[in-house]
Every structure is written in structure tokens, then in C-alpha cells.
């Protein structure tokens, strides 16, 4: 790093910064890039394997991406767009494996069928309708639906044990679904970046202040061990600090930051300790959220591959928290309240008292109550085979709105400075799965406005990494087939 000055400063060592770092290195190898992480290593917050569910979100199994409409049809638009965005991630990962920038795919992604499972007449009819609509689209061509007991038993034998024969059950299955160890992926990407001459990683280093002067950002860094501080100048700053992106964005003083607030939600898993049981389940099975439950608490039973070892997790149980990171402070929420977002925060507080009550109730559940929830999936689950573990934090976005003062959103949003000198990633869903598309948006919206940071041929270079860049996988069935046959082969998803 020259004279404490860099072209690009990436704040936070999670999947988002790692992805942007790799993309930028490939688009312009001459860029001087510094990644700053406050913890002692990268991928220890939301991107760590046990802090998220590791689902390669593609809209195959997540019923909240396909809401039922009043006329009993299903809105599939969000599922189509998430699926296409996940294909963008698969293209980058496949290219990096082929180039040797990432190790063999099984070190971070594994084929794991994605199932949705429901019971009761109304839910079965909803799932059938969802299947009929999705199946017509080439992105979902290989989805299967069944109400047949023998078929359901083949797909998920543990789940079908000792079920009531009078009840209607149904499931859909997409065999080429993915389980992704986003922690391993982040670490592999950062390991690749560390081999580049113009890249610097600073761990145990916290960003404490950001100020824009003379077309540059002056960013104050503090070593969390020695407490020493220094200032780094950067032409472009990316705030990929997970839940802490909001407070950092507020520190910039940018007009674009005004009005945003955050609603933190914690998570917990039940983790199976019984190796025999882990062996008997090999899919990701998503259910339907309770009527009053928020979308991030859709229950699912997941086969996972974590650090190369199979695991079985159930959850997440969402809960009430005031921290923005797992390693954050109880004061995070209070400190994020500013005069510019107070009205939006009050508006959301008034509208969502039920959600707050729900999260408080969830947070205080007993082991027995959580096991009862698991038994709706696994009727024979034994209390002694499962233990509780803490998942990561999600900070949902609060925004100003005319009607109710504020609204709560469950998606992801990139806030960009008008001059393209800074971008901040807020929100957490669909999260890591769409990290590549999210970072391409940062390149297009911000870096193209920064003269000299991207070479003239950046689009051609991006197309080498992401062959469908600039084209639509939603509209072009032949292109999808060509792309998938390559990515699925390279990543072992066939
Ligand atoms: C319970 C749960 C389940 C999830 N399941 C899925 C899933 O199945 N599939 C999926 O695709 N996504 C899922 N997600 C979302 C996904 O985990 C996140 O979207 C993604 O990991 C966010 O990555 P990030 O790089 O933005 O943040 P993080 O991984 O949180 O990294 C941010 C980093 O910034 C650092 N940092 C913060 N402040 C500072 C500072 N001031 N200075 C320096 N460093 C700082 C932090 O220490 C941290 O390491 C889930 C999330 C949760 C919580």
C-alpha cells in the first residue's frame, strides 16, 4: 500500500467485500485494494457457515418468494429474478474454479436437493399451483411435485416417518439445488486476493470515521489490539460491514444515508448431534411460515456440508435483539436512531408491535418448545439428539415513506453516493447467494463514475467471467441451457 492511499477500500471481511475484491482485481489488476476487518480473521460474522443457512437461494424451495394472490394464482416474479441472480453467482464461481482462483468446487458448494414440504388441503393446493406455474418456466423446468407417499418417502424418509395417513402431504423437489459454505468461499476468495501484488488485508482493524474531502475519502482506522490509529485515503469505499453497514453509512454524512434505519433480528439453530440421524437426511426441506411469522423465520431442515463434514440443522428461530452484529453492542439499535430516521423508526415501531412481540416470544422459548417445532418436521426427533446454537444477526431495512412514516423491508439494498465514490450494502435477504449480482450493481452504479478505476475493456473482462453478463437468463431458454451445462458440470451440481 503506497503512502496510506488506495484506489479501493473494502470495509468488512464477509462474502460481499470478498466478491467485490475478486471482481475488481479481475476487471483491473492494477487497482490498489485494501480490505479492512475488525475481527482477527475474515468470515466470522454472517458469512461464517454456522451463522447462515448455506442455502443457495434460487427460489426452488423458499415459499415466501412466491406469495399467493387473491385469485389463488401465485406471483412467481421474485423467484425468477432470484433464480437468475443465483445463476450469475454460479457463473463467477465456475469461472474462478476453472481459472484456479478457487479450489475444486466441493470445498465450498455441494449438490443438495431443494424441497418444499407442506401438509393440509389448502397448503397442498397452494404448492400444486406454485409448481404448475414455475414448471412452465425454463429456469424451473426440472422441478417435480408429488403427493404420493412412496415418492415423498424416497425424497425425505426421516420426515415421513410415523405421519398421520389421513392427512394430505405434498412436496416439490429440485435435485440440482445447492448447499454453499459461504464462510469457506469467502476465505478462499480472500486467500486468492492475498496473492495479488496490489492487495492488502488488515485484520483486527476497525473503521471508526469516514470523511469526504477533495474527491477522496479519509478513513480513520483503529487497531483493535494496540488501539493505534491511522488515516487511509481512498477513491472508492465499499461498506460491506454486514449489520454495521448502517451506522458506518450514517457516519459518512451523505444525503443518501438520511432516513434509513435498521431492525435487528437474531437467529438460533437446533443442531443434530446424532451421526446416525445426520446420515439419513440428505436434502434441504423448507416449510411454510406461520401466518404471523416474518419471512426470515420460515422453518427448514437442512443437510449441510461445513468444513467438509456433513451436518443437520433446523431453524432458524428468529429472536429479538438490539445488536447489529453477533459481536456487536447492545447499544447498536439505540445509537442508530438519528433525527433524520426517527420518524421512520417510530412509524415501523407502531406498525410492527406484533412482530416485536413475536420475536420476544421466540427468543424466550424453552428447549421443549423448540423441539416441538422440530417435531412438526421430524415426528420422531429426540430431545437429547439436538442442541441449540446461535446463528448470525440480520438487520432489516427501515425506510421513510409518506403513508405510515416508515416501512420495514426484508430484502437487500445498495445505497450509493451520487458521485459513485461510496456504496453501502444494507439488508440480508436473499443475501450471500446473490452477492455476485449485488457487487456487479456496485461496479455499474459507482465504479463507472470514478474515472480511471475501471479499464476501458471492463465489460469484456466481466463477460469472460460471467458469460451471460448483459443478457437475460429469464428470457432466453437456449442461453440458460448452455450456461447451466457448463456451471453445473464445473460445480458438480448435475
Ligand atoms: C440466520 C441467517 C441465515 C441466513 N441464511 C442464508 C442462506 O441460507 N443463504 C444466503 O444466501 N444468505 C443467508 N443469510 C444472509 C447472508 O449470511 C448474508 O447476506 C451475508 O453473509 C452478508 O455478508 P456481508 O459480507 O455483507 O456481511 P458479514 O459476513 O456479516 O461481514 C461483515 C464484516 O464486517 C466487519 N465489520 C463490521 N463493522 C466493521 C468496522 N467498523 N470496521 C471493520 N470491519 C467491520 C464484521 O466484523 C464482519 O466480519 C443468512 C443470514 C442469517 C443471519
Q: What key attributes describe this structure?
A:
8-stranded mixed β-sheet, 32% helix, alpha+beta, FAD/NAD(P)-binding domain, 10-stranded mixed β-sheet, 15 helices, globular, binds flavin-adenine dinucleotide, 494 residues
Brief summary of the model shown:
With 494 residues, this protein is an alpha+beta fold. The protein is built from 15 helices and 20 strands. It starts with a strand and ends with a helix.
Could you describe the 3D structure shown?
The protein is of the alpha+beta class and 494 residues long. It has a single domain (5-491), classed as FAD/NAD(P)-binding domain, CATH 3.50.50.60. It is 32% helix and 26% strand. The chain has 15 helices and 20 strands. It has helices at 15-27, 77-99, 121-135, 149-155, 157-160, 182-194, 245-252, 275-279, 332-335, 342-351, 353-363, 367-375, 435-445, 458-465, 477-491, and strands at residues 5-11, 33-36, 109-111, 114-119, 144-146, 169-174, 178-180, 199-202, 205-213, 216-223, 229-239, 261-272, 284-286, 300-306, 309-320, 386-390, 394-401, 405-409, 412-416, 422-427. The strands form three sheets. Strands 4, 5, 6, 12, 13, 14, 15, 16, 17 and 18 form a ten-stranded mixed sheet that branches. Strands 1, 2, 8, 9, 10, 11, 19 and 20 form an eight-stranded mixed sheet that branches. A two-stranded antiparallel sheet has the order 3-7. Helix 1 runs parallel beside helix 6 and helix 1 (15-27) packs across helix 13. The longest helix is centred in the N-terminal third of the chain and has 23 residues, at 77-99. The radius of gyration is 22 Å and the shape is globular. The two termini are 43 Å apart. 48% of the residues are buried. The model has no long low-confidence stretch (mean pLDDT 94). Bound molecules: flavin-adenine dinucleotide (FAD). Flavin-adenine dinucleotide binds next to helix 1 and strand 9.
